[in-house]
């Protein structure tokens, strides 16, 4: 079982992840486990204070290192000392498919969902293994980013997805965007399913799907396209398309 712990002042938010959909079934089937630790439980005053004004002045409040460390100690006791500690932060590395796969292959995971202006840097330097961002924007706290990261990780665990190839064929799994998908009806509002998908020729279908993934990535995410290691077959498929060969 893959064990995760989250440190958050809003534990109830995580039921949105654990109670619904594919990821919810993974928790119900005991493929993974989540514990949530509220740092207010470790506050030292009757007001359950976990934050204070920043040294040097400025707006907002900063989460205190002692209560975060106490919550982390409890979390690691349940998940295991080997589990990496990831703080959700706009300053972190951007979440990617590769990172999700790396974390899914690990011994477990501890996530720290910050609030307010952030966390005392001494806690980050002392106790956090890496910081992760979900993009170049700011949200109200680390809970939603933590759930995004958890969803990306859990769906990669063995047996979570219904088809063994589902995760392997997702966008970004090979560094490319996904190809387009179609289902019934065959004709909708004057638009037909591409004929190649109805041909029954699995080799042609595979080549068409690969072409679409390459074209989509080149058009929509040229940054991914130039970083991708294209095979000789990929280059030949694109050469044929660019030269006007549309016989797919």
TrEMBL record:
Protein name: tRNA (guanine-N(1)-)-methyltransferase
Summary of the function given for this chain in its UniProt record: Specifically methylates guanosine-37 in various tRNAs.
Description of how the protein assembles with itself and partners: Homodimer.
Gene name in the database record: trmD
GO biological process, one term: tRNA N1-guanine methylation
EC number(s) recorded for this UniProt protein: 2.1.1.228
Matches recorded under CDD domains: TrmD-like
Keyword terms: Cytoplasm, Methyltransferase, S-adenosyl-L-methionine, Transferase, tRNA processing
Catalysed reactions, semicolon-separated: guanosine(37) in tRNA + S-adenosyl-L-methionine = N(1)-methylguanosine(37) in tRNA + S-adenosyl-L-homocysteine + H(+)
InterPro entries named in the record: Alpha/beta_knot_MTases (IPR029028), tRNA_m1G_MeTrfase_C_sf (IPR023148), tRNA_m1G_MeTrfase_TrmD (IPR002649), tRNA_m1G_MTases_N (IPR029026), tRNA_MeTrfase_TRMD/TRM10 (IPR016009)
Source domain of life: Bacteria
Compartments where located: Cytoplasm
Top-rank EC class of the record's enzyme: transferase
GO CC annotation: cytosol
The tRNA methyltransferase TRMD/TRM10-type domain, residue ranges: 3-225
Main localization (coarse): cytoplasm
Positions annotated to bind S-adenosyl-L-methionine: 114, 134-139
A GO term, aspect molecular function: tRNA (guanine(37)-N1)-methyltransferase activity
Family per similarity comment: Belongs to the RNA methyltransferase TrmD family.
Gene3D superfamilies attached to this UniProt entry: 3.40.1280.10, tRNA(m1g37)methyltransferase, domain 2
